[in-house]
Design brief:
This protein is α/β, with parallel strands linked by helices. The chain is built from 10 helices and 5 strands, in the order βαβααααββαααβαα. The chain has a 5-stranded parallel β-sheet with strand order 2-3-1-4-5. α1 (14-23) packs across α9 (180-195), α3 (44-53) packs antiparallel against α5 and α9 packs across α10 (203-211). It is globular and about 55 Å long.
């Protein structure tokens, strides 16, 4: 199975690309969802977070994490954010490795990666790294159009790798500085080039032809 890491900052269009690839037959894994999975009540990751950030982060009866409280504490400083990452990321990497090891998808698996610069040696699991880039002012405008507070956007974007960094560490770039149709055209060309090499995605192959 061919594994693709799909990277991009907030409001870059990464989810649009991932959704299109899923429609064409790829399996889609979102690292944000895996990060929630490793925070199950009683799990090792959650125990480490509680030890670092306070026992009041979990509800007494259910053991559920108060994510809002954790976010306020973890993102109160760059030091606290790095501390949270140092706890979470090894668990997320291990969960991803397990997920990929048991995958028998005949086509490919696309892994959405919000923080490619934090993935370390797990990037070796990818056959190809694809990034979605978009100028920061345009991303801010799009995020605001979705109702996101500009200050929240800036804080999140500041913790993510820049487009220049992503270009330097990716095999392919999808430039999302136009409309959605232009972005999807780039996806179609990339998909069709790979499909000709032998991907087998069933009915999705026919869909790929209609998008070409």
């Amino acid at each position: 199975m061919y594994t693709v890491f799909l990277a991009g900052g907030i409001a870059s269009g990464k989810s649009t690309v991932a959704r299109e690839l899923s429609l064409r037959g790829a399996r889609r894994i979102d690292l944000d969802q895996l990060s929630r999975r490793v925070l199950v009540p009683g799990g090792a990751c959650l125990r480490e977070i509680v030890a670092a950030f306070g026992t009041d982060l979990v509800e007494g009866e259910t053991g559920e994490l108060d994510r809002g409280l954790l976010a306020r504490r973890a993102f109160s400083s760059s030091e606290a954010a790095r501390r949270l990452e140092s706890i979470e990321l090894p668990h997320i990497r291990a969960e991803l490795a397990r997920e990929l090891a048991r995958d028998t998808h005949p086509c490919c698996c696309v892994v959405e990666v919000p923080l490619l610069d934090r993935m370390g040696d797990v990037r070796g699991l990818a056959d190809e790294v694809v990034c979605v880039t978009c100028p920061l002012p345009l991303r801010r405008l799009r995020a605001r159009g979705r109702g996101m507070d500009p200050g929240d956007f800036d804080a999140r974007a500041a913790r993510q790798p820049t487009d220049d960094w992503l270009r330097a560490h990716s095999d392919v770039e999808f430039a999302n500085d136009g409309d959605e149709g232009e972005l999807l055209d780039q996806v179609a060309l990339w998909w069709d080039a790979h499909a000709r090499r032998g991907w087998s995605c069933g009915a999705a192959d026919a869909m790929g032809e209609t998008h070409a």
